Fold this protein.
Amino acid sequence: MRVMVIGASGAIGTRLVPQLTGRGHEVIGTFRSPGNVERVRASGARPVVLDLLDPGAVRRAVLEIRPEAIIHEATALAGRGFSRKLDRTFAETNRLRTEGTDALLAAAREAGTRRFIAQSFAPYRYARQGGMAKTEDDPLDPAPPAGAHETNAAMAHLDQAVSDAGGIALRYGGFYGATGDQLARLVRKRRFPLIGDGGGVTSWIHLDDAAAATVLALEDGRPGIYNITDDEPAPVREWLPVLAEALGAGPPRRVPSWLARLIMGGVMVMMTEARGASNAKARRELGWTPRYPSWRQGFAAAYRPQEAVAV
Ligand SMILES: NC(=O)c1ccc[n+]([C@@H]2O[C@H](COP(=O)([O-])OP(=O)(O)OC[C@H]3O[C@@H](n4cnc5c(N)ncnc54)[C@H](OP(=O)(O)O)[C@@H]3O)[C@@H](O)[C@H]2O)c1
């Protein structure tokens, strides 16, 4: 297929492009920062610079390339610190997920593009009650924490718009495997504490596994939503010490819930109440088997110094 990957220079894009070309697909990789042209070319894609927030440019690019498939992997999180105002950190990413998705869908319709896949997110979104591993049919959090409303709404918009258009929204787990990632930086500096009992559950995914599932979704996925997460959603108190060890950091500090609430506000419930996601549908329908079924092996493999990949 002729596939247009939006965000080809990013953490997932750079893993995805070689897997697509390895399966015989022709890839056009878009990026925004001019300095990334060689990175995209080296990954095996034909590089095209494109600002997803410019709907006219999106339309022109898609009509010119006439891709058979579009995969939207653009986010804008690099270098942005996390705070109690998650919506501020995610403001541009939220626009990429709403305006960007809408512009791509409109252009795809006009160009006759048959397949459409977009990056969504699984952790911290499902209702914070009941079972710990939610399926795609389980309800989302009806009352997201203050400071995260716009971010949750943007993801919901993407899920809905893409599904309605007959495309596929991939609710990835938390990505890991990039040495430059913000979480690894914080954990190395012991600035990612264990809050309260650390009972909030996170679902993770190694970037290579996320890319592999994306290729399968492109080739065989049915319209709708898939959780692309590993087999072991786990509470922070379990995965954080393992991550710290994999990174060669000291053990995480502890912060009581009341203090965390003062500092972080409502978003701290992600660390104490969140639910994870089940990957059963992706395993069943896509025939996908993660190479790293648990973050237990994945963190160790991803952050071994000789295997770490800078993005
Ligand atoms: N599921 C998850 O856990 C998850 C999801 C997203 C990101 N992250 C993490 O967050 C870190 C930083 O991520 P990031 O958001 O900077 O993502 P990234 O994956 O490093 O890059 C995002 C991609 O989107 C492109 N992009 C950004 N703004 C754009 C725009 N206006 N128009 C078109 N393309 C645009 C970027 O292009 P240029 O680089 O050329 O500007 C890049 O190709 C990474 O370590 C990543 O793993 C995690």
